[in-house]
Structure formats: C-alpha cells, structure tokens
C-alpha cells in the first residue's frame, strides 16, 4: 500500500519563497512532523514547511494501472514559490495551482504534473523525466541558465496551454510539445532535440539553432522565418510518426494524421545549417 | 572683501557615459559660477548642481541626519526581502558600500542597467564582445555605425571628442576620412549628420544582425536581393556588409534602440557574434552607448565583488544571479520586495509608472543630491554631496576607462559613500546585538 | 608578539634546511628574540614552517580579469562561498571574485601577490580590485610592450636622446600607474594585429613607428637596468602557444643575453614542432640554454586539466585561440597602449596538445637546475587556477604520483615529451624556493621570502603529511604582518594588505614632444591620467638600486 502526501497552502506569502526541498524523494517515508520540519526559504529566512502548509498523509487508492499513483500532491496558489521539484529524480508530484520560477529545473527523473500556470525556467537544464503543464508556461522553458551553452539535456515537457519566449533555448536533447502558441525565439541556439508547437510561434523560430528539429503543426499566421533558413523539400519525415506515437502515449493526441506533409527548411545557416524547421504543408 | 575665485581645469563631467574630462569650472565663494567646454546638458547640470537640495526627512518631516540613518537601519534590518538599488550616478567607492550592505542584509541588489544596457551584458555572458576604448575610435576608426542611438542629443560631445569629427592619429582630417552610417527607426540629428542613414522598421534588430552575419560570412540565405529585411532591401544590406568588410577599423555604437528592441539580449548576442565574425576579415568592434555617468562602474564593482554585473540576490548568503528574477522591474512588478534602499538614481522618473508604484507602498530610503519625483514620496530622504561636484571618487566611462572625479566645492552634506558607511556600520551593530 | 616553536623551519635564504627553530615575531617583523616569557606561543610540532608565499605572476585584478568573471556566470553559479561575520561572500572557481581570491591565496599560505598585466589606462581599475583583495600585499606590472610613447621614444634616431626619452617614459608610466615592474606582452605584435597584419618576428618593423620587437625588448631591458628596478623586464614573448615557437624564444633569449630578464609562463613559449607541424616539447633545448644564463629567471605556467579562462594582453593570440575553438571571446583594444583578450578553455588529458603542454611545464621545472630561477606558476588562470598549486607541488615532489598521471594522458604523448625519463623529485626546500624565496629574490623584495630578523612576519605553517597535495592544500596557520590570519585552515581575520610600489631614482617625466603627442591623441587629459594616491591606501615603496 502506497501513501500519498498532501500539502495544502495555508496562506499566500507576500515575498518570494524558495522550495527546492519540496519534491517526492524528500518526503517519502517521513512522518507528518518530519515533513513539517522541512525547511523552505521565505525571503531570506529558512522556515519550516509546516508554517506554510497543512500536511496530510493518506493511503492512496489502489492504482488501477490506468492512472499513475501520485506520491506528492500540493494544492494552493504557489505563484511566489520558486524551485518546487528542482532536481527531482523520482516519484510523482502533482500541483493544483500556479507555480513560480524554476519548477522542475534540473529534474532528472520522475513525473511532475502542474494543473495551473508556471513561471519562467520550468524544467531548465532538465536531464530526464516528464513534466506536464495543464496551463500556460512562462519564458525560458527548458532553457539554459545565463552563461551556459546548453540547457535541457533530456526528458519530456508537455505544455497544454501556451508558452513564453525562448522556449527550449540552447537545449541539447529531449522533447518539448506545446499545444498552444509560444513566444519569440523557440529553439533559440538549440544544439539538438525536438520542439513541436501546435499553435502559432512568435518570431525568430530556430534563431541561431545548430542542430535539432522544430516542428510547426499549424501553418496559419506563421511569422516569416529568418533569412538564414533555406527551403529544401516537402515530405513526411518518418520521425513524425514516432513523435506522434510517443505523444499519444503521454495523452497528447494530434489531430494531424501520420501522413502529414511538412515543408523542410534547414538552418540556421549562420551556425552551419544542420538544424531543421518542419512546417506542416 | 574680495570674492574668492578658483578656476578648476580638466574637471570631469559626470552626466553621461562620455565623462568628458576637459571641463573648466569657475568657483566663486564656493559657488559654481561658470562652466566652459561642457555641452549644454553638462553645463546646465553643473550650474545647477548646488541648488535644490532636499531636506533630511522621515515621512516628509524634517529631521536630523542621525535620526534618518537610524530610521534607515531600522527599516532595512526589519525587512524580510529588501532591495538595494541604484549605483548609476555615484562613485565606485559608494557602490562598493552598497554591495556590502546588500550582502550583510542578505538582500537583492540591482542597478538600472537591468532595463537599459543589461541585455548587452547578458549577451556578453553568452558570447563575449570585441570592444575597444574611445581613443581607438578617435585615432583609428574609418567606419562608425550608430545603431539605435542618437548621441548628438544624448551624448552631445561624443562625436567631436571621440567618434566622428575628432582628429585622430590616423585621421588627421577628422570627419572627412571616416564613413558614418546610422541605423535607426526614425530620422534624428545623428542620422542626419551621417553619410548613410538606413531607416528600418521597428523591432527588427535581430533580423538585421542575422542577415548581416550571413552576408559578411557568405552563408546561404533564403531570400532574394529584393526581399525586404526590416523594410530595407537585402541588396542594400549587402552594400553595408561590403562596406564593413572593406573597412580597416570599424566600430558599432549601439544604444537602447538595440538593447530594448524586441528580443533584447539576443539582439546584442547576434550583434556581438556578427562583430566577432567580422574580425575574420578586418578589425571590428562594438561598444554600448552607456547613459548615466557611472552605470558602467556599477557593473564593474558588482562583477568583481559578486561575480555578476546586475540582478544579484544574497538570500542564501552568497551571490546568485538571474535577470528577470532578481532585477528591479520584475521584483517590483511582482511586488516581491518589502523595503528598498535607493541611491543615485531616480526611480520616480525612470521606472515605468506601474512597476514603480510598488515602491510607494513600502518603506524606501533614498540618498540623492537634488529634489526630484522620488524625494517627494520616499520614506527617508537623505541629501548627499554630489559626486564630481562636492565629492570625489571613481567613475567608469562608457568604454570602462576609470577616471577620478573631483570635489570642486564644499557641501553641507556627506557623500553617498560616507552616509552608506554609517548605515553599514549601524546595521552590523544592530545585527550583532 | 608571537613565538612559533617546535616547527621544522625551511628558510633557504638563511640556510635553514628543515631544522627545528623558534621563530620570534614582534610587531610586524621577525626578530632575533628572546621574547618575554608571557608571549603567545604557536606550537608547530609536526609542522613545516616557511616564509609566506610570493606569487610572481597571476591575473587577479583589473579590466581583463573582470571581463573573465563577466564571461562565466555559469561557473560562479556553481562555485560560491557565503559571507560570515568576518568574511565577504564570493564566487567563481576559475576567476574568483576579489575577496575570495585573497582568502584562497591566504589559505594556501601566500602573503604577497603580483597582478601580472595592467594597461596604464586601466590601472585605476586594477588598484580598485586590489584594494578589495584582502590579506595579501599586492603590486602590479605595467604593460609597455606596445605602448606608443615607448615605441615613439625608441624611434628616436639619436641614441642619447632615445635613451633619455625612454627612461622618462618608463619612469612616468610606472609612476602614473603605481606599477612595480615593466611588463612586455607580445611586443609589437598586438599593435601589428590592430593593423590586421600577421605575426611579428624579432625584426619585423611595426607600424606606426617602425620599431621592431627586438628594439622594444632590448630597449626596455636596458631602461629597467638603468632605472635599477628591483625586478627586470617581465617578458611574455611573441608567438605564444604556437608549435615551434621554441626557436623564436631561443632567439629572444639570445637577443637579451647579458641583461636580466624574467621569462614568464615559459611553458607556453617552449614548443618544438613535430614532423607534421604539431606540438612537441622543446623543454630540453630551452632548459639547456636557460641553465647557462644566470641572468634569466622564469616562471613555469604549468597546465592544470579542467576548465579555465585564458586572459592576456596578447589580443591576437586570444583571437586565434577563439578562431580555433569557437565559443566565447572578449576583446578590448586599449588606445595607444595594448589590447587584451579573454577566451574560456578546457585542458584535457586526452587531447594530445594539452598533454604535451602538461608534460612540458613539468619538464621545464625538472630540467632547469637552479630552483632560484624557475618559479611555480599557472599564469593563473591561463594555464589553470592557482588553487591547484597543492596538486602541482605533489607532481613535482612525487615521481610515482607524476607517472600515475602520465599514464592517463593521450597515449602518443611519449613521442613528443621526455617527462617519463625525468626522475628528479623536488625537496621541501626546493618547494620553499620556487614558491617564496626565489620569487621574492627575483622581485627584489628583501624583507619577504625569508624568516631572518628584519623580515616581515609573514609565515606559513603547513601540517606535515607524506601526501604533499594534502600538506599544501591548506595552511594550518598563516601569519601576516605578525597577525594570525589563518588558524587550522580557517580564516580568522581579514584586513587590507600593502600596495607595493617603487621609489624611482628619477622623476618620471615625458619629453616635450611625447607629452604633446599624448595630449593630442589620448582621450584622457594628461592631468587625469595619473593614478592618485587614494588608490593605494597602504603603500610600501621599494627603493630602486
Ligand atoms: S557629453 Fe556628456 S560628459 Fe560630456 S559634457 Fe556633455 S553631458 Fe557632460
Ligand atoms: Zn600572464
């Protein structure tokens, strides 16, 4: 029998809170009073989590194999809470509410589900695992922190709403899927990996990209590509079928069929031109 | 009784990033009476430097310096997420005190570059930048490109002292032997005095820099010669690329039109890579047209003390950096700070009104030589002796050349550095007991 | 007052070779003793006592160093230190922030530190950072090898007025910058690059004054001699980092033979060329020549594997490094004086070039016989961060350890190096020489680098371990000016050190035409150029001669 830990926010803080200690592996097997004592950084002071959350442990319903068991369940407006699930490596965590910056950053395993919006740097430098956002995500999703050449190194991020600017900037590997629109410069300076955008991207998709793939499923209202992308051909990449399969396993059904045609542009020619932007034809 | 006349020469004007250091100032009975050689802006500022000083106040009521400092210390030590902000128009000596205060308080510290030239610094962190001092421009540059800046109005003497008509070692004729190009979205006095004005559509700096990179390096492009980039034909940009490759020593001065244009830091990143790649053909450089006197110095001090030029947070006792998360606009827009120490900048005038508003809801300590919009509402106002007029110290020019600004008159007030030292000492004392 | 007892003292200057001696300290100096019985005692039983370390070549303060910090926020995010009641916070493992630099050097037992390359126009910046570098006494070298006033003076046809003018310029530059030594970086080569021209050789005329690198180096060497400077020219020769540059370095040594000179980071200048044009060690030939020329000193510039940041006034070298590696590149041309560049780099044992460089540095230190003329350095942070000194000391002292590293290198390295043939192991005394007594002597610092009466009470006490890396990684005690700064490896007190400058025999004055020239073409007024005394609040002027 697995137990589920529930954290319910008692009051919304008026200053920023850093809560990288809130992640499944830090809570699993602990008693309520142990969990209460877990420190979080409120402004510049470390305070016990129990001051901010009501904590409950309940036995989780038998898993019916369809729905995965959630180990850690958090509820509340966590807009001011940064770094939740940072570095998380196992287990599953669900948040009902909005979260702040850096959620799931440097994550290297497990599952993070956010039923709400997220701040910037969601999944930054992520290595493995899955993040699903049922809401909108901020800027610099899966991106590299300042100065780094490489961001996300693996794993999957699915955003059911819209995403901000610099989506997947400098990413190195992994898959990002956005159902809705995204801001400027998705895939900026990406080194490899895949970004799929269901809605309309902002300007400068793939700017400075070195390798990797950006798929744009919606050809309407597309902003002009940068001049450093050149048209190659129109075809159905075999890769599309695979990606579609992977996504549907994660609960994302694409309306487009497996035989969808794409126009292929290669670029950024300033960076060697080994990346590609595939636009649904 | 005869009036006492003192003439100071080679005075440094601290009012813009040019830091002209040839100003002549006459002082009669400790009052500045005449200013020579400065531009209109500089002269006005110097002539009015000694007037319109605020009173020492707490909540608008006059008080003593001692009481004001105590109140400041009280506010800062009780705050749970304080902000230390400013550092642009004061000496590095004062800036060093500010960083230390931020550190002792485990506060967040930022300077106005986060909404001016900060994107240029972030770009440098990704790709670096090839730059030079202003004297290299004066002596060597045969191609000068003003991009998104209008120095004829913002840095008036820049063109005559450094970049356009200055008579340099290898340009004894000054203006005649240089090509001047400007890229801007509208005509300005600077574009009018250029050899070639390329008028572009707003928001397209990144596209221009991207295309120029391709043209300079002969990379394939997906556009024909007639296609428009930023409203200008590719063939025209090709001409510019040729001009760039053909020059001997070229310099791009970039202003807020580049750093605050759509894309911000990635504009400068692309521009920096462009400049770097041009060096495969000839010598080429770029320089940020830094605005306020010592905003460059603020970035330097923060970098050598904390490792980062702006947007630093000490919540965990050590410096952490993340513009957006720890820069003034984001912090205020999200209403995250609960007290602020502001020195040598005017947030009331410079910050966007809606973000600045949060400052009116929290206690703010403000050090400033003159009455301005912020002195009207700041909780604690401490007037200070103005750097470069009534206080000496170090300023960094826009090319990061450090100069020592001088004290030419006496003031009734302490300098920023001195007030900050007192605040720091009392904070340390308060924290230890 | 303080008495250190029971320690094994290594004081090569005073011929004390590991004997148990008392060291007596009164005020800021070491004294003969005896001291009154109630004097505080430090029991150094089981420890080794040495003079405080003297760093002869490191890049720790000023424009390009700060550029280096600016260039790697990602490193700062990973390496940080929180503030304490005594210590300021800091970060960066490759180019540490100023306070951290002071603390880390102190923990390694160093008490004197020279910033190796300061362009005159940026001297205030260097001094500002040195003011924020605590504990150590510091000084800086003034970059002159591409300076217009120097080159213009050298262009003077009349020999006597040439010498006089040059002397005036050099003295004026040292005075104006509060510098300690004449630094020469790629003489003429940086200026040539600004003209988009190629590399320079000894006799390449360099625009705009048509003087040659040979003229610059010999001229400045002679001027340094005539000014009786305590440290001779500090020379980074042309062609740094090129395969085959050994031949050029030997040429340069010949050109300078007979006059004192310090060859810095010699490792970077001692490459032979393999048949295919690649890197090979030229240590044997360089060391042989060097051994026969007692007028020369050098520091090694040992490579440390791992990420680091290269930074030098040698702008063309940095640019070609950038062209080779891609990635970040910062450059700053400085009017009428020099250039500078910054490029991050990672030295890797499985790269043949890096492996050869690694061996070559150690070979130089093992093949140069006289430890008084070769000093430990990594040209911090160019060849690696100074915090690796303990590792490098162990590599010098322990051949088995050295060979265990050697095995991990690119397999072909044997063909291009001779390290595997070298059995020499440094003794503790030799380590004391190459890290403190030797540099102090080369710098003309009479009160440092030894423990005789009259010396500054700068003393490092290391716990004795067979593992020499462990032994030198953290001093048990560091005494600076008689104050106990480090105790049990932790910093207990922090204060500002002295600023080391020169008391020159002549007043630095520019000849009329040079002054006029300066006023016409510099963007800084003559009167605003000179660094004011406020920038060196605790000066100590070393007398020339
Ligand atoms: S250009 Fe700037 S520094 Fe020069 S006088 Fe005018 S305001 Fe002052
Ligand atoms: Zn060096």
Spell out which ligands are present.
Answer: iron/sulfur cluster, zinc ion
Beta-strand share of residues of chain C: 15-25%
> Share of helix among residues of chain B?
25-40%
Helix-strand category of chain C: alpha/beta
Q: What distance lies between the first and last C-alpha atoms of chain C, to the nearest angstrom?
A: 32 Å
Number of domains of chain C: 1
How do you describe this structure in short?
The complex is a heterotrimer of chains A (281), B (433) and C (545). With 281 residues, chain A is mainly beta.
Explain this structure.
- The complex is a heterotrimer of chains A (281), B (433) and C (545).
- With 281 residues, chain A is mainly β.
- Chain A has 3 helices and 17 strands.
- Chain A has a domain of 164 residues.
- The termini of chain A are far apart.
- By secondary structure, chain B is of the alpha/beta class.
- Chain C has 19 helices and 26 strands.
- In chain C, α5 runs antiparallel to α6 and α6 crosses α8.
- The longest helix of chain C has 19 residues.
- Chain C is globular and about 65 Å long.
- Chains in contact: A-B, A-C, B-C.
- At the B-C interface, α3, α4, β8, α5 and α13 of B face α1, α2, β7, β8 and α4 of C.
- The complex binds iron/sulfur cluster and zinc ion (ZN).
- The site of iron/sulfur cluster has 13 residues of chain B, from α1.
Give me the secondary-structure topology.
The complex is a heterotrimer of chains A (281), B (433) and C (545).
Chain A: E1 3-9, E2 17-18, H1 24-27, H2 32-36, E3 39-42, E4 45-48, E5 53-59, E6 72-75, E7 81-82, E8 92-96, E9 108-115, E10 128-133, E11 156-159, E12 175-178, E13 194-197, E14 213-216, E15 230-235, H3 238-249, E16 262-267, E17 275-280
Parallel strand pairs in A: 1-6, 2-7, 6-8, 8-9, 9-10, 10-11, 11-12, 12-13, 13-14, 14-17
Antiparallel strand pairs in A: 1-5, 2-3, 3-4, 15-16, 16-17
Chain B: E1 5-11, E2 23-28, E3 31-36, H1 40-47, E4 57-58, E5 61-62, H2 65-78, E6 82-86, H3 92-105, E7 108-110, H4 118-127, E8 130-132, H5 134-140, E9 143-147, H6 151-154, H7 158-163, E10 179-184, H8 189-192, E11 196-199, H9 205-217, E12 228-229, E13 232-233, H10 234-246, E14 249-254, H11 256-259, H12 265-278, E15 283-288, H13 295-306, E16 312-313, E17 320-321, H14 328-333, E18 339-343, H15 347-350, H16 353-360, E19 364-368, H17 373-377, E20 380-383, E21 393-396, E22 402-405, H18 416-432
Parallel strand pairs in B: 6-7, 6-18, 9-10, 9-14, 10-11, 14-15, 18-19, 19-20
Antiparallel strand pairs in B: 1-2, 2-3, 4-5, 4-20, 7-16, 12-13, 16-17, 21-22
Chain C: E1 2-11, E2 16-26, E3 29-31, E4 40-43, E5 47-51, E6 53-58, H1 63-71, H2 73-78, E7 80-81, E8 90-91, H3 98-107, E9 110-118, H4 123-131, E10 137-143, H5 148-154, H6 159-177, E11 181-185, H7 189-194, H8 213-226, E12 233-236, H9 245-256, E13 261-263, E14 271-273, E15 279-281, H10 283-291, E16 296-299, E17 306-312, H11 315-325, E18 330-333, E19 341-347, H12 352-367, E20 374-375, H13 389-397, H14 399-406, H15 413-416, H16 428-442, E21 459-463, H17 468-473, E22 477-480, E23 483-487, E24 490-491, E25 499-503, H18 512-521, H19 526-529, E26 539-543
Parallel strand pairs in C: 1-4, 1-5, 6-9, 9-10, 10-11, 11-12, 12-13, 13-16, 16-20, 25-26
Antiparallel strand pairs in C: 1-2, 2-3, 5-21, 7-8, 14-15, 17-19, 18-19, 21-22, 22-23, 23-24
Bound molecules: iron/sulfur cluster (SF4) and zinc ion.
